[in-house]
Amino acid sequence: MACNLSAFDCMSVWLRRRILWAGSGLGLAVLLGRRAGAAAVEQSVKLPAGAHWVVRSQQASVFYGIRFDESQVRLGVIVQNGPAQTAKKLPELLRSAGAIAGCNGGYFNGRDFGVYGLQVSDGVAQGEVGEVSELEAALVMRDGKLNIERGPEFPKQGRVTQRVQCSPLLVWEGHPAFEGGPDEVALRRSFVATDEKGQWVMGCGTNLTLSGLAKSLAGGQVFTDLSIRTAMNLDGGPSSGAWSRDPQGNEHEFRAATVVQNLLALFEKETN
User: What integer pLDDT is reported at residue 27 of this predicted model?
Assistant: First the structure.
């Protein structure tokens, strides 16, 4: 098809189409990385309950995020206790649960789908906190309020209805909490982050080290409309996956390469 736009605009259109089409985003991340200093290519799709599916690029990484206001949605932890051979894929679980969006959750044992740390789904608890460091973190719905809590002094009071535990803590009080080291490897990563004022983003990114992810989130380099105060890592690598469905029924996905034991799901709040 002929293109009547400038060469730069044609390339921008082509890149946006590639973002919409890409399953894993890995090839696209490399491609975008060749355009050093270029502005981020973005996609923003309105979802129910005021949420948004957003795709943004930074250097050689592509981020797939779900932006939401906790006052307009309900977050739940969906679990499947295996075995892995019969586990359902992330989109299938979210569709069957009636979710509007979701992403993979915390760590788990890939062989037997064993729980990592203390996991709570709709008030039902599995596992235990265990011995944790200051880099341990948990996403917790406690007394109806969604928070990222930091170990080892996790709060013990209050009613917990949803919880996933993972590490490391990425951002604390607006600053990177994880520095990394010389042996860090760039992989697919998953995360959840908040401005501590009710605005959140959860999702995945490609070609990222943990320290690089921490700096990107804390520095406002990717989600520029959100002043992130706290963020935590979720299970990454082949587990990283995100999905959403817009009001027209169109599905948007960053495809996980494997099945997962737990995931984070967003639902529209029930109205009386």
Answer: 35
How many of the other CB atoms lie within 10 Å of CB of 192?
A: 27
Report the chain's mean pLDDT, rounded to a whole number.
86
Strand partners, 79: 262
| Category of 135 on φ-ψ map: left (φ > 0), alpha (ψ -120 to 50) or beta | alpha
144: left (phi over 0), alpha (psi -120 to 50) or beta: left
Whole-number Å distance between alpha carbons of 29 and 59? 8
At how many degrees (to 10) do helices 26-33 and 7-21 cross? 160
Confidence at residue 221, expressed as pLDDT on a 0 to 100 scale: 86
The dihedrals phi and psi of 10, each to the nearest 5 degrees, come to -60, -45
Q: Which residues pair with 234 in a beta bridge?
A: 190
Assess whether the previous peptide bond of 83 is cis (omega < 30° from 0): yes
How far is 41 from 19, CA to CA, in rounded Å? 9
DSSP letter at 52 equals E
| 179 DSSP 8-state letter | -
Here the tokens at position 154 are 């996790």
Confidence (pLDDT) at 59: 87
List, for residues 201-253, the tens digit of each pLDDT value: 999 999 999 999 999 999 888 998 899 999 999 999 999 999 999 999 999 99
Cα separation, 38 vs 224, in Å, equals: 16
Please state the pTM of the whole predicted model.
0.85
Average pLDDT of the segment spanning 44-61 = 95
CA angle 258, 263, 266 (to 5 degrees): 130
Distance between CA atoms of residues 130 and 105, nearest Å: 18
SS3 159: coil
Give yes or no for residue 6 having a pLDDT over 90.
no
